[in-house]
Amino acid sequence: MSVAVRTLFFAAYRDRLGVSELSIDLPSGSTVADLVNELRGRGAPFDMLPEKPAVAINQIYSFLDEPLTTGDEV
């Protein structure tokens, strides 16, 4: 099984990355930290993302250890 999430980028991140949105599939049980690591592992320009960014899941501020579920907007 996998978890499909919609990842949104705003302001400076959107400008630096050149994208405003990505759909990403992660292994079941993945957390926000796993998503950040997946993105940073893609290399430039994603490797410029901080290791501990401020994030929200479905418009609610969340921590890096928060689990993700299919359909989440991060």
Description:
The protein has helices at 11-17, 32-40; strands spanning 2-8, 21-27, 55-57, 60-62. The mean pLDDT is 96. With 74 residues, the chain is an alpha+beta fold. It starts with a strand and ends in a 12-residue tail after the last strand.
Topology readout:
Layout: E1 2-8, H1 11-17, E2 21-27, H2 32-40, E3 55-57, E4 60-62
Antiparallel strand pairs: 1-2, 3-4
CATH H-level superfamily title: Beta-grasp domain
Q: Indicate the structural class.
A: alpha+beta
Give Rg in angstroms: 11 Å
Point out poorly predicted stretches. Answer: none
**Helix-strand string:** EHEHEE
Report the top-level CATH class: Alpha Beta
The average pLDDT is 96
Q: Give the terminus-to-terminus CA distance.
A: 19 Å
Report the CATH topology name: Ubiquitin-like (UB roll)
Outline type: globular
Query: Quick one: biggest sheet?
Result: 2 strands, antiparallel
Share of residues in strands:
25-35%
What is the CATH architecture annotation?
Answer: Roll
The total number of structural domains is 1
Neighbour order of strands in the largest sheet = 1-2
Q: Considering DSSP H and I runs of 4 or more, what fraction of the residues is helical?
A: 10-25%
Q: Total number of helical segments?
A: 2
Number of DSSP-assigned strands: 4
